[in-house]
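Exercise 7.
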Amino acid sequence: MRGRRAPTRVERQARTRTGLLDAAERLFTAYGFHATFIEVVADEAGYTKGAVYSNFTSKEDLFFAVYERRVERLIPEVEQALIDAPGTAEGLMSVVSAHARRREANDDGWLAVFLEFWTHVLRHPEHRDRFAAIHNRYTDLFAAAISRLAGERGLQLPFDARRLAVAMTILATGLGLERLTQPGLIDADFGIEMQKLWLDYLTANAAAGGRE
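Solution. The predicted structure, written as tokens, is:
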């Protein structure tokens, strides 16, 4: 009987990187960006501090990798939701609803550290382009959907679809942040309804040629 094949060097490197990313995401989500230290990530993952720096140049690089992985996992989910829905507007609301429910159930820690890192980037301009590039991969999905919706309904959008997509996603983010401190006032249902009102207003206003 043949023994199990030993993993290759590339496979071992990939396993190490994945373990570090998993540990970093858990710690960032639980304790925040600034309170999470490289050596703690290494210990949590069962590796040395040197293993972290063999895969990532800095704590910022590690956070970016965690953020990028989350976006990469989210993209096919959003794309499939838009495909499965009977129309683009319904698809957008399906995505909004799923995100709001997930965030309320178990993703508050990520939302908090995402805001923390966002403000960190504002004070460190050298990271802004990379942050924007990853963020735009997500918002561009909404921009494409908004453009498609306009085409389906013959709408004249009042602004560029990318700007509207940013407005739509930041509305969800802002309401999510308010829910962290005012859960009795803001909940997932309210956030979903506000997004629906925004989308209904956009389509009605665009149908009128952008007039108030």
